[in-house]
Design brief:
The chain has helices spanning 78-87, 94-103, 142-151, 169-176, 180-184, 217-232, 253-267, 313-329, 402-416; strands spanning 2-5, 15-21, 28-29, 34-39, 44-48, 53-58, 65-67, 71-76, 118-121, 129-132, 138-139, 235-243, 273-276, 281-284, 290-292, 294-296, 299-301, 304-305, 342-345, 365-369, 373-379, 382-396. The N and C termini lie far apart (64 Å). Strand 9 and strand 10 (129-132) form a beta hairpin. The protein has nine helices and 22 strands. Strands 12, 15, 18, 19, 20, 21 and 22 form a seven-stranded mixed beta sheet that branches. It has three domains: 2-116, Beta Barrel (OB fold (Dihydrolipoamide Acetyltransferase, E2P)), CATH 2.40.50; 119-206, Irregular (Dihydrolipoamide Transferase), CATH 4.10.320.10; 235-416, 2-Layer Sandwich (Chloramphenicol Acetyltransferase), CATH 3.30.559. It is α+β, with helices and mostly antiparallel strands and 420 residues long.
Length: 420
């Protein structure tokens, strides 16, 4: 019998929630046959069978959250045994092992696996090392390892609450003590309800008489992202208004915003960047890939509009429509959720003039656009009513100066105020 573990679904996420199983115990399944649908913090993904076999055990039911790398399904059959052996550390040719390693963890086509897991082996007095060793003790999801490095958490001291003892993001956050100061002042931390075995390091969960509703999927991801933004970023916001009096009838607001962001990044590249606060390292990005927050019933999804500085208005509109539709249908491809360099929150399509949007690391800036209004303005010696767009630019003041932010916003205003 071979255990297939939940692979990294290509989004760098620590876990996924089971939406539905397409198979049941006793079923015979074929290679690449859809086994189940899982919901990550970003999309619903179909996971195919890595090999043919008979289903012997399902780890988890719909609604259960499974950590990346934790057992998902157990299969029995010759195909399963052969592929598991070939993918093992001592089986198959070197080329075969290399190919299996390259393919492992994907969700397109065949997903080979083995009983081995990526395990962190702690060494006293030295750096931690990672090894595929069945007898190891510390198992951590990739996102948990990345967060532990950023927060300076020693994973050897963290107890995993994920299935099979895997260390997940919540365990790292709880152990780090993020939010304890807020707890002492009476505030509630978004991760206070964690079920981590190290929960004694986190604030107590609020006591709701009706038990409350545990955050899942997009909303839980938002809580985690906002907690990280609050605790690690020096958010600073500046405001201004773009005068749209010169606009022609039927201008595409979203496309104009995307074009203006590209103009701002060209004028001030410091805002199209990634910043690692742990190493104090900044990377200026050569291409502007704008993450556009899309409001859905389940929460926010942020797909990326690629290379906004070199595409036509028609191309941008086509991509915006495609991604908004995919976001609301929860069919966004993982590639459309990666490698964002700048964020746009167009909340004004619903309500609100100004806001203080938060920068989520490693990004360094986010632009919020408010509701368009006709304002009374002074033009030379007379008064006129002009259409204006409120803008709110939040930047990470750890690595972006006030001057850089102001120059960026000035370039955005100039571009928006053009007549085409």
């Amino acid at each position: 019998m071979t255990t297939f573990n939940l692979p990294d679904l290509g989004e760098g996420l620590a876990e996924a929630e089971i939406v539905r199983w397409h198979v049941k115990v006793g079923d015979t399944i074929a290679v690449d046959q859809p086994m189940l649908a899982v919901e990550t913090a970003k999309a619903v993904v179909e996971v195919p069978a890595p090999f043919a076999g008979v289903v012997k055990l399902l780890h988890g039911q719909p609604g259960d959250v499974i950590a990346t790398g934790a057992p998902l399904i157990e299969l029995e059959g010759s195909s399963a045994a052969q592929i598991a052996g070939a993918a093992g550390p001592h089986g198959g040719t070197a080329a075969g092992r290399s190919k299996a390693a390259a393919d492992s963890g994907t969700v397109v086509g065949n997903v080979p696996t083995s009983n081995d897991e990526l395990i962190e082996t702690a060494q006293a007095g030295g750096r931690a090392r990672y090894a595929a060793a069945p007898g190891g003790r510390l198992r951590a999801a990739p996102a948990a390892r990345a967060l532990a490095k950023k927060l300076g958490v020693d994973l050897a001291r963290v107890n995993g609450s994920g299935r099979g003892g895997v260390i997940v993001v919540d365990d790292v956050i709880a152990h780090s003590g993020i939010g304890t100061a807020a707890a002492r002042s009476g505030a509630t931390h978004p991760h206070a309800s964690t079920t981590s075995a190290t929960a004694q390091h986190a604030p107590s969960a609020p006591a709701f008489s009706d038990g409350g509703e545990k955050l899942r999927g997009l909303r839980r991801a938002m809580a985690q992202s906002m907690a990280l933004a609050r605790d690690t970023v020096a958010n600073c916001t500046i405001f201004d208004d773009a005068d749209l009096h010169a606009w022609r009838e039927g201008e595409d607001i979203t496309v104009r915003l995307l074009r203006a962001i590209a103009a701002g990044c060209q004028a001030e590249p410091a805002l199209n960047a990634l910043f690692d606060g742990n190493t104090q390292t900044r990377r200026l990005m050569p291409r502007v890939d704008v993450g556009m927050a899309v409001d859905t019933a389940e929460g926010l999804i942020v797909p990326a509009i690629r290379d906004v500085g070199s595409r036509t208005s028609a191309e941008l509109r086509q991509d915006v429509d495609r991604l908004k539709r995919a976001a609301r249908e929860r069919t966004v491809a993982p590639d459309d959720l990666r490698d964002i360099t700048f964020m746009l929150s167009n909340f004004g399509t619903i309500a609100g003039r100004y806001g203080t949007p938060l920068v989520v690391p490693p990004l360094v800036a986010i632009l919020g656009s408010g509701r368009l209004t006709r304002d009374v303005v002074a033009v030379k010696d007379r008064i006129e009513a002009h259409l204006r767009m409120p803008l709110s630019l939040t930047f990470d003041h750890r690595c972006v100066t006030g001057g850089e932010a102001a120059r960026f916003l000035a370039a955005v205003l100039r571009d928006l105020e053009k007549d085409h």
